[in-house]
Task: structure prediction
Amino acid sequence: NAGVTQTPKFRVLKTGQSMTLLCAQDMNHEYMYWYRQDPGMGLRLIHYSVGEGTTAKGEVPDGYNVSRLKKQNFLLGLESAAPSQTSVYFCASSYSIRAGEQYFGPGTRLTVT
Amino acid sequence: AQSVTQLDSQVPVFEEAPVELRCNYSSSVSVYLFWYVQYPNQGLQLLLKYLSGSTLVKGINGFEAEFNKSQTSFHLRKPSVHISDTAEYFCAVSPSAGGSYIPTFGRGTSLIVHP
Result:
């Protein structure tokens, strides 16, 4: 089992460019999440999904869009990148949204110049 | 809604010394509690969790945590730390009934173990 994988691992964007981050999990989990991690801020939830075809906003959704067309994949899109979106992005999945532990990917380090 | 406060942003300690990382939470409903560890340049992984039952929970790598409902705390402890325990530690809470079911994470505590 690969667990949760994220593509790419690193990316540098210029302001205004767009990109998509891909998250894939092979554990048949229903629930998937996108977080951003910034120094001193901990993890902040961007968007999440409770199943294939569903998405919902988290704490900091502005400037991001997501899609969950297949159960195993959760995509995070930046339509017009801004320097404030420079961060480390983590994807996670879980079998239960309350009591289940979250399994995290290795992260994507994004720099927007 | 719930919230999590990790009282120390950084905890330096010498190797083989005991350590306690503090976590307090607030919630209007009963909660499940988690501790995660993040080693440098890696994602988070679960150390331990409290769902119900015994308030003393044992996790991986010799860590344990105690749930104290009256003090709304879930402090993480290890009797003797190793250099390899140097990492960021996150406390998280999710409601066990009602409310928003999305886990809330604390801001993290950086454990720095010196030789």
